[in-house]
Write a structure and sequence with these properties.
By secondary structure, this protein is an alpha/beta fold. It has 16 helices and 15 strands. It binds one RNA strand through helix 1, helix 5, helix 7, strand 12 and helix 10.
RNA sequence: GGCGGGUUGGCGGAGAGGUUACGCAGCGGAUUGCAAAUCCGUGAAGACCGGUUCGAUUCCGGUACCCGCCUCCA
């Protein structure tokens, strides 16, 4: 069995991965808050942990890996969007408008992440489906003396959990010293965080022992991971910016609610995405969405390739140049493999070298280097690229559709416009060879290149290949 | 202020205490009427200062600079 070593944020070291139960390897990854289109930064953990999911499925068997990624559909930004729609005259109750908004966003998210070649997780729970589990967990925390109720709020008492701060390497005292936020007066300790907060009539709420309200941000992941994966599971992933406070608080809640269990054994955090060397973030406003990129003509697999060309624990700068290189490599692979048939997934056995690269804390860059070396073995390249999430059925279909639509618009075989031009070119060239006057040949060649056609000439004949910027209209009159 | 991470050739980006990363770009060659595509070959690095070592870009310490978290965020 392939050895997998993963960097564990909790211990700050690379460790050999040993699942609690090899027949049910369990991974939880923090998913999106569904109030708007996913930006490119949101896509990084999706692609990274999708690659890990694929590796785990290959090593332990498809049926033996459970991957949970949540949708946060309780959030004040969602409420605000719904409220704005209502004020703009949208029909329906606030709850209906909120539901509409989250449904719509989840649909976008699925479409965008599918385009990146990411497999759907085993389960995608929504916070609103687990309010009962959250309330139960909060009640348990109060009973055990780890949480307290104050004026409709329930707060977690960080001083009741001595390990608080261990995951993110901070001490409560240091954090208080450097605190930049105003502290709510009802908190026993400035670092105490909200488990439950009251909702007024203009906000969505659920009945609870503490009145009508809604959960704090962190409790949902604790409740859903417990319900779907148990008190102890193998891997918890997410962006490094979630390490504190989100994951720290998750650890505190879960470990206090289920003493004796491990919660997540391995914590994995992907680094941030940069744009122009600055972190892409909502507050800086320098983010763009996956959809925008797709619409600009960057195929999803190109985005995936760029993502995987940088190790997940390093910041990654998104640049047009990287996208260009990725596209070049993928086009080349597609061209080499478009006529081959992929091996059925169940028969595929990945090469040990590729598995070693991925098993070494997801060295995806090395894995891509391995794929590149497979140029001379197209069948092997096709199967291994597909294992990595490239050259998918969709991408191959799209490629073939593009080829077909080209034939469609010009007619097939010798009557095709380009074939005709190729013949013309060939004849002109043959004449030029004799007359030594190449001007007419060069003129036609220039016109073809201007139309986005690549001109390949050899002794055997002339081959015309339409490129990315191919414009059939420019062929008129040639 | 507290905590964490980074600094590799023109660009991107890995591994390894000593032996070619790789890709892109460049250069040279084959090929071509000239090109394109393809193939072959090739130069170029390890922020700075110390230490450990027979030997460090790789380990340790310091300096500088950059970045992130501590506030919604993947």
């Amino acid at each position: 069995m392939t050895a997998i070593r993963l960097y564990n944020t909790r211990t700050r070291s690379k460790e050999e991965f040993t699942p609690f139960d090899p027949r049910n390897v369990r991974m939880y990854v923090c998913g999106p808050t569904v109030y708007d289109r996913a930006h490119l930064g949101n896509a990084r953990p999706v692609v990274v942990f999708d690659t890990l999911f694929r590796l785990l499925r290959h090593v332990y068997g498809e049926e033996h890996v459970t991957y949970v990624r949540n949708f946060t559909d309780v959030d004040d930004k969602i409420n605000a969007t719904a409220l704005a729609r209502q004020e703009a005259g949208a029909v329906g109750t606030l709850e209906e408008l909120i539901h509409q908004r989250t449904e719509e966003t989840i649909g976008w998210y699925h479409a965008d992440m599918d385009a990146l070649g990411a497999l759907r997780p085993t389960a995608e729970p929504r916070a609103t489906q687990y309010i009962g589990a959250m309330v139960a967990m909060i009640e348990g925390l109060i009973e055990r003396g780890h949480a307290y109720e104050v004026s409709g709020h329930v707060l977690f008492d960080v001083r009741s959990y001595p390990e608080y701060g261990r995951l993110s390497g901070r001490s409560v005292d240091d954090m208080i010293a450097g605190a930049r936020v105003e502290v709510a007066p009802y908190k026993r300790d400035p670092m105490d965080f909200v488990l439950w907060k009251p909702s007024d009539a203009s906000l969505p709420g659920w009945d609870s022992p503490w009145g009508r309200g809604r959960p704090g941000w962190h409790i949902e992941c604790s409740a859903m991971s417990y319900e779907l994966l148990g008190a102890s599971f193998d891997i918890h992933g997410g962006g490094i910016d979630l390490q504190f406070p989100h994951h720290e608080n998750e650890v505190a809640q879960s470990c206090c609610a289920h003493p004796g269990a491990d919660f997540a054994r391995v914590w994995m955090h992907n680094e941030m995405l940069l744009v122009e060397s600055k972190k892409m973030s909502k507050s800086l406003g320098n983010f763009f969405t996956v959809r925008e990129l797709l619409e600009q003509g960057y195929p999803g697999e190109v985005i995936r390739f760029v993502m995987l060309s940088t190790h997940y624990r390093k910041p990654m700068d998104w640049t047009a140049e990287k996208a260009r290189e990725a596209k070049q490599a993928l086009d080349d692979w597609m061209h080499l493999t478009c006529d081959l048939h992929p091996a059925p997934a169940e028969d595929f056995q990945a090469d040990e070298k590729l598995l070693e690269a991925l098993g070494d804390d997801l060295n995806t860059h090395l894995a891509l280097t391995y794929l590149r070396a497979l140029r001379s073995q197209p069948q092997k390249l096709l199967d291994h690229a597909r294992f990595m999430g490239f050259l998918s059925d969709d991408a191959r279909a799209e490629y073939n559709r593009a080829q077909a639509s080209f034939v469609m618009s010009f007619g097939a075989g010798s009557t095709s416009r380009l074939a005709h031009l190729a013949q013309k070119m060939h004849a002109l060239r043959a004449a030029a060879m004799a007359s030594k006057d190449f001007a007419p040949v060069d003129a036609l060649k220039s016109a073809l290149i201007a139309a986005g056609v690549e001109v390949r000439m050899s002794k055997e004949g002339v081959e015309l290949v339409p490129g990315a910027g191919f414009d059939p209209a420019k062929l008129e009159g040639l």
